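PROTEIN DESIGN WORKSHEET
SECTION A - STRUCTURE
LENGTH: 308
TOKENS:
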């Protein structure tokens, strides 16, 4: 297993400024890696069809003929040309959309022709090089492990982070499954939650996500073949998820996911000065007891400075 490479994949639309963070990290890794970036608009179908009932929709304001309109496309063209053996960009023809996010995550698989670690890195999910190296070492030391769950530091503002677990942003029953041991022929059967099945497993027994019902991943964090949250946290593998740190993220989620009034509610939350506060008091799409505190008072600072 000494040659275990990592294939990272990212699906993205308008990933600035976060998308620029990852390549420098990957370039510092002391082993083989490849970054697969799938860009463009995903139709609100299949896994993400749940957002339609809440008013989610695709508007022309956040794309250019089905692709990013914030500079992400030009950046991806630049790095794909500069690192053709390391970076592959996947897109639909101009003017067309992906058939849901499931189609996006499936796009790179035919080009992954070796056993590897497959690692989902959303544009706003930030790791350090030391964490990636440590994770790979864990998989090398435990060949029986097929996947890994992680906790994250879930930012809901530039200095606002969730302080609770087993609630929104850190629900251990399905979040965050991000790394898998991959063999050519493995197949994605869902994206929300991520369901990767090995080639000879009975894929068709995995039910579809219908009528907004959320399913659990095909195996749980208590599975002996999966690194649990406890194990990865003990190894220092807690990533930063900058999910709501710039207003552009809130504007997009308001439209695409139907999170009505998201930018205004977010600004109201940022104006508070007494913590902790209940996230659901500001984000009505949150239904549980997730609490928000100031990251800086916990000695926690975003790896990437966004300027907001």
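SECTION B - SEQUENCE
RESIDUE ASSIGNMENT:
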């Amino acid at each position: 297993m000494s040659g275990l490479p990592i294939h990272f994949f990212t699906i993205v639309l308008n990933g600035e400024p976060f998308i620029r963070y990852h390549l420098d990290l990957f370039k510092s890794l002391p082993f083989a890696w490849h970054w697969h970036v799938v860009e463009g608009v995903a139709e609100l179908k299949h896994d993400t069809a749940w957002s339609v009932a809440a008013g989610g929709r695709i508007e022309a304001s956040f794309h250019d003929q089905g692709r990013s309109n914030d500079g992400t496309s030009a950046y991806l063209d630049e790095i794909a040309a500069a690192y053709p053996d390391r970076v592959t960009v996947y897109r639909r023809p101009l003017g067309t959309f992906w058939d849901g996010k499931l189609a996006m995550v499936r796009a790179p698989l035919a080009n992954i022709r070796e056993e590897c670690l497959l690692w989902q890195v959303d544009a706003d999910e930030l790791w350090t090089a030391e964490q990636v190296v440590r994770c790979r070492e864990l998989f090398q030391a435990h060949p029986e492990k097929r996947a890994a769950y992680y906790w994250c530091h879930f930012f809901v503002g530039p200095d606002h982070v969730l302080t609770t677990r087993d609630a929104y942003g850190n629900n251990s029953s399905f979040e965050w499954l991000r790394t898998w041991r991959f063999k050519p022929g493995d197949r994605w059967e869902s994206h929300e939650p991520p369901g990767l099945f090995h080639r000879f497993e009975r894929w068709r027994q995995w039910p579809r996500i219908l009528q907004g019902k959320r399913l659990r991943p095909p195996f749980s964090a208590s599975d002996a073949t999966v690194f649990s949250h406890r194990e990865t946290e003990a190894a220092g593998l807690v990533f930063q998820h900058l999910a709501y740190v710039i207003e552009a993220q809130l504007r997009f989620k308001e439209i695409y996911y139907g999170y009505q009034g998201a930018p205004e509610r977010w600004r109201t939350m940022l104006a508070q000065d007494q913590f902790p506060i209940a996230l659901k008091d500001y984000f009505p799409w949150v239904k549980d007891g997730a609490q928000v505190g100031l990251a800086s008072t916990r000695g926690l600072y975003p790896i990437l400075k966004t300027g907001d």
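SECTION C - NOTES
The chain has one domain: 6-298.
The chain is about 20% helix and 20% strand.
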